[in-house]
Write a structure and sequence with these properties.
CATH superfamily of the largest domain: Type I PLP-dependent aspartate aminotransferase-like (Major domain)
Distance between the termini: 26 Å
Shape: globular
Structural class: alpha/beta
Number of strands: 13
Radius of gyration: 22 Å
Number of domains: 2
Number of helices: 12
Order of helices and strands: HEHHHEHEHEHEHEEEHHEEHEEEH
Length: 398
C-alpha cells in the first residue's frame, strides 16, 4: 500500500510547500476558506510600502495603479479562468461584484423577470438575489438541490423558460464539493434565452476553468481561498466580451467612467470591462494575489488539479477505512469528475469536535448541520499532513 510519505516523495509539487510562511500547527485543512500566505508576499508588502507607496506617493496612480484592476484581471483570466484579455476586473467584495453582475444581467434581458437559483447555494448568493428580486420586482425560481450533490442540467432545464432573465449557480457547491457541469448548464440557459452568472469562488485556482470556451456569460469569484490573496482580498468579475455593449453595471462610480478625471456632470461608462469598476481600486489588497498567481502559473493549473484530485481521493480512502465504521458519512461525490477541491464528512459530533481540533492545531472547518469540511490547497498541503490530522479525528471518535 502506498503511504502518505511515499505520495509526498513522489509529488512533483512538493517543493512548493517551502514557499509558504510556516505555521506552528499540526495540519491546516481550511485552505478553501483562507489560503496561507507566501514568504515572498511578506517581503513584497514591505517593499511596496518603502519603494512604491512611500517613494512615489500619489504619482504611482499615473505610473500603474489606475490600471491594476484590469491588468490583474487579465492575469487571473489567463492563469486560471481560460479567459482572453479585456474581460476580467478586480475590486470590491464578492457580494458587491455578484450584485453588479446579476443586476447587469437582469437589465440586459428586458421583459424577462425571473431569476433562477438553488436552495443549496452559498448564503450570500441567495441573500443578494432575494434583495435584487425585491428591488426590481423580479420573481425567484428555486431549484431544490440535493445537499449531497448539486444542480444538474436537467434540473435547470425544468425551470427555465421564456421568463428567465438570469440563472445564478456555483461551479462547486460550497458544502458538498459537487462540481457542476458548466458547459451543459450554460447551453440549457442560453437555449431558453437567459444569461448565467457562475460563482467560481471554490474552483478558481484549483480546478481548470475555460470560461471563454464554455460560452460563460458572467462569473464572479473571491481571491482569498486558492488564490491566497489574504483576508478580505478583493473579488473579481468576468464579463464576456459579447455582453460589453448590453450589460451595464448599476454602481456607477467615477473610476468606471470613460474619463474619470473629467469630473463631468453626468456618468458615461468606460468601454469594455473597465465600466465594471466603481470606486478607487484596492491596490494594497491586490498585492498578495499577484504572488500566488505567479506560483499557480509556475506550477500549472492542470498539475494543481491532478494533486487536488489525489488529495481528495486520499481523504476518501482514509474515511472509508477508518471513519465510516464510526458513523461518519461521506457527503462529497466520489467521482473525481464531479468533485472539487474539498471533502465534507458528516457526523453528529463534528460541531463540538472541530472546536477541539482547533485547540490541538488541526484546522478544518464546520458547515451545518454536521459537516466537517476538509479543504486541501494543493501547493501548500502534504499527504502526510492530511493523514496526521485524520488519524487524530479517528482517535477522537468513539
Amino acid at each position: 500500500m502506498t503511504t502518505a510519505a511515499d505520495r509526498d516523495a513522489a509529488d512533483p509539487l512538493a517543493h512548493f510547500r517551502d514557499r509558504f510562511v510556516p505555521a506552528d500547527i499540526v495540519a491546516y485543512l481550511d485552505g478553501n476558506s483562507l489560503g496561507r500566505p507566501l514568504r515572498v508576499t511578506r517581503d513584497n508588502l514591505v517593499r511596496f510600502v518603502d519603494d512604491v507607496w512611500g517613494e512615489r506617493l500619489i504619482r504611482a496612480w499615473d505610473e500603474g495603479w489606475m490600471q491594476t484592476p484590469t491588468e490583474l484581471g487579465d492575469t487571473i483570466g489567463r492563469v486560471t479562468l481560460g479567459a482572453a484579455p479585456g474581460q476580467t476586473t478586480v475590486g470590491d467584495s464578492t457580494t458587491v461584484m455578484l450584485y453588479k453582475l446579476v443586476r447587469a444581467a437582469l437589465e440586459a434581458r428586458p421583459g424577462r423577470t425571473e431569476i433562477v437559483l438553488d436552495t443549496q447555494n452559498f448564503p450570500t448568493d441567495r441573500y443578494v438575489l432575494e434583495g435584487i428580486a425585491a428591488e426590481r420586482g423580479a420573481t425567484l425560481r428555486w431549484i431544490d438541490a440535493d445537499p449531497g450533490s448539486g444542480v444538474t442540467a436537467d434540473q435547470v432545464a425544468a425551470v427555465v423558460g421564456p421568463g428567465t432573465a438570469v440563472v445564478v449557480l456555483s461551479h462547486i457547491a460550497y458544502r458538498s464539493g459537487y462540481l457542476a457541469d458548466v458547459p451543459a448548464i450554460t447551453e440549457v440557459v442560453h437555449a431558453a434565452g437567459g444569461l448565467v452568472v457562475w460563482d467560481v469562488c471554490h474552483s478558481v485556482g484549483v480546478v481548470p476553468l475555460q470560461l471563454d470556451a464554455w460560452n460563460v456569460d458572467l462569473a464572479v469569484g473571491c481571491t482569498y481561498k486558492y488564490l491566497n490573496g489574504g483576508p478580505g482580498a478583493p473579488a473579481f468579475a468576468y464579463v464576456a466580451a459579447a455582453l460589453h455593449g448590453t450589460a451595464r453595471q448599476p454602481i456607477q462610480g467615477w473610476m468606471g467612467a470613460a474619463d474619470p478625471f473629467a469630473m463631468g456632470p453626468a456618468y458615461h461608462p468606460a468601454a469594455g470591462i473597465r465600466q465594471f469598476v466603481s470606486g478607487t481600486p484596492p491596490v494594497v489588497g491586490m498585492l498578495p494575489m499577484r504572488d500566488m498567481l505567479a506560483l499557480v502559473d509556475e506550477a500549472g493549473i492542470d498539475a494543481i488539479r491532478a494533486k487536488s484530485t489525489a488529495l481528495t481521493e486520499f481523504v476518501l480512502d482514509f474515511a472509508d477505512e477508518h471513519l465510516v465504521g464510526k458513523g461518519v458519512r461521506i457527503a462529497t461525490p466520489r467521482d473525481a469528475e464531479r468533485r472539487g477541491g474539498h471533502v465534507t464528512l458528516d457526523h453528529p459530533s463534528f460541531r463540538d469536535l472541530v472546536q477541539q481540533l482547533w485547540k490541538r492545531g488541526v484546522i478544518p472547518d464546520f458547515r451545518p448541520p454536521d459537516g466537517m469540511r476538509i479543504g486541501l490547497s494543493p501547493l501548500s498541503t502534504s499527504f502526510t499532513e492530511v493523514e496526521r490530522a485524520l488519524r487524530i479525528v479517528a482517535d477522537a471518535l468513539p
